Structures are given as C-alpha cells and as structure tokens.
Amino acid sequence: VQSSRLPHRDAPPQFSTPLCPPVSPPPGRGDRRRRMAAAGAATPVGAAPRVGLLYDDRMCAHATPDGEKHPENPERLRAIRRKLDAEGVASRCVDMKAKEAKEKYIASVHTPNHIKLIRDISSKEYDYRRNKTARKFNSIYFNEGSSESAFLAAGSVIEVAEKVAAGELSSAIALVRPPGHHAEHNEPMGFCLFNNVAIAANYLLNERPDLGINKILIVDWDVHHGNGTQKMFYSDPRVLFFSVHRFDYGSFYPCEGDASHCFIGEGAGEGYNINVPWEHGKCSDADYVAAWDHVLLPIAEAFDPDIILLSAGFDAAMGDPLGGCCITPDGYALLLTKLLGFAKGRIVMALEGGYNLKSIANSLCACTKVLLGDNFTYNSPRMQPFESTWRVIQMVMVRDELKAYWPVLSSKLPDNVPLRSAPSYIEVNFIFLIFFLVTLCWDLLG
Fold it and tell me: Quick one: fold of 54-382?
C-alpha cells in the first residue's frame, strides 16, 4: 500500500512504486524540487489547487440518429457528472462552460473540407443523406446535434488549456464528447469528429506565444492508439507524444502499423513520438506503472514540458466492454499522481474513450481528487507486470534512434523482476473477436 500526501506543484517526480522496481532518475538532472521552486509553482505552496471542471449538457446532443445503442453515448458524460456531484467533488472545482471553437483554430490541424463537413452535417441539407455520409467513415455516426457538440468539444479543450497555461487554474478537466484522438487531418474516425487535444496544443503553441508554452507533453492513456494525434505532431519537436495502448501485433483498433514502437517521429520531430504497444489485453495497474517508471517519467524529466495535455480515455479500465484491460480507479489516480511533478503540475485532462459507465465515473472521480490534492492511498491488489510488458519496455528502450535523443533510455533495467505469464492465446483472441464483431455490427447498422 502506498500512502502519502499528493505531490503538489513543487514536488519531484517519483520513479518507483510497490508494483515495480525503482529506476533512478538520470544523473546530472539535479533536484527538480529546487528547479521548480526557482521557476515558481503554478499554485503557491500551501494554497488549495484551483481545478477547472468543464461540463456542458449540450455535448450530450450528439447521439445515434435513431436512438440505437452505442458505447459512445451521452450517458457517459452524465454518469461522470452524477458521480462527481455525489462525491462532493464537482462543487470543489471551478465550474466552466463550453465555448465553440473558432474555425481558424480547428484549421490548424484539419482540412477545410473536413471542417465544412462537420459544420454542415447537422443541417437540413443532410437530413436524407446523413447516415449514408457516416458510412463513408470508420466507426462514425452523425445526428442533428453532432455539429454543435463537435465544435463545443474542441472549444472546451482550448478554453481549459488556455486557463491552465495562463495560471488562472492549477489544472483542469474537460468532460467532452465526441472524443478526438482518432480524428485524422482530413476525416473523422473512431467515434471522433475533431481532434480536440491536437487543436488545443496548436492553439497554445501558435496562437498564444505570450503564455510561454513552448513544449507540450501529450500523454494518451486511452486503450486505443491516438493515431490522429500522432500524425499531427510527427515532425514537430515542440510536442512529445506518448501513447500506451493495445496493439496486439496490429490487430487491435485502429489496426494500423504506425502504433508500433518503431514509429518515433520524423525530421525535426524524430525521437518525439513514443509508442508503448501492448501485445494483448488484461494489462493492469502494474503494467502501466512499469511503462511510466521505465519510459515515460525519465523521458518527461529530460523533456521538461511547460504543460501536459492528457488524452484521458478510460477504456483500459476494468470492466470496459471494448478495452479488455484491468486498470483500477486507484491505478489511474497513481498514474496521474506521477505526472504532477512535471510542468509545475499544469495538467489538462480531456476525456477520450471509456464505455463502462461505472468504471469511467469512478476513475475520473479518483483523478479529480488527485488534482484537488486529496490524500491518496493506493489500495489495489499487489500485482506484477506481464512478461510481455517487460519485453515491450525493453524494445522501446533499446531503440538506438531513441537513445540518441533520450540517453536516459540507456539505463539498465532491473534484474530478476517478478513477472507473470501472458493470458492464453485463445483468451486474448476471443476478446479481440468480440470487439471485431461488435464493431462490424455498428458499421453495418450505421
């Protein structure tokens, strides 16, 4: 059990947990506490964190056209809000309202034709061809509320990111839908219409230089690879994109090879794209903590971001019908706690996936309490990472290209780490088969 007062904005990163052997911070980095204190923390020491919470019921207008059941549905937002209200958490946050994004900001990552489609798709002009249009894309639906919801979702992440970057908030959570990380430069994809996090990142870097945001760490812990976000920053060294996701040798959605650890960026952005691809389902807190301790945290220390944008999908949570993984609410809280020592604690959480209403509500609530500075005790069962997790971490770390950019990856991994065997081939492939059949049915019924 791990129990401590949460590290606030001046705390150093922690590189060890009872789940995984420790990794020492890279030599020569100095004491992060001193560096952060010298720079000034986003929240004065001893002051209560100001955590923004953006919820707007208008984003619930995006729904299946004829009321068909679908995992990405309005009840996801409402379930989270009910949980935050019931726990007395929402009232402790700074209430924020959604604003529609201006098209010029969306155009920083999406084509004019893409923007026009999403702007017009809910108009009467599309009444008789809306479903046919949706079927042209991968896992997409539209209705009369889709346009407004998409523009609100993109604008909401801009709004909270701007407030956090300006120091008006310590951190913030944007409860938005539709999600965004699958949306490509020129088309919607995978339940996502606009790439909300990418739009916000471009806004901070290119529209608000006065805020001093020069380096952004995007952490995508959604169980699916953030293909759209990766492509949008693949050659941009100002953005370090880190995605941990199920890959299953290319068979897990979005079933694209560029979710592999081999894809590390190109040009000026080479070394700034880091994928940790799981080989199968059932990954738990221990597997994610291992990826944090041995890959993400040392690299984040070296990168030293000005702000962290978190693509916060909760479909790797225990009980999620699509993810097939086993992260607990405490596990998510622990992962978030480990990020608080970076960027003066300036973290923006933007909701992505997560389709078990109880899991997504409990996990988001646990994360909100972390940002509010509540005492945190890690109470989940003690587990070991999978053998495959250790193998993936070794593959990521031994990449010569990455070592050239992140010498910390040359550190030797601990020996004699207790590991567990991967789930059986039949079990893992049965999970994938169910996912494939469900997705196929949605597309056919679309």
Answer: Arginase; Chain A (3.40.800)
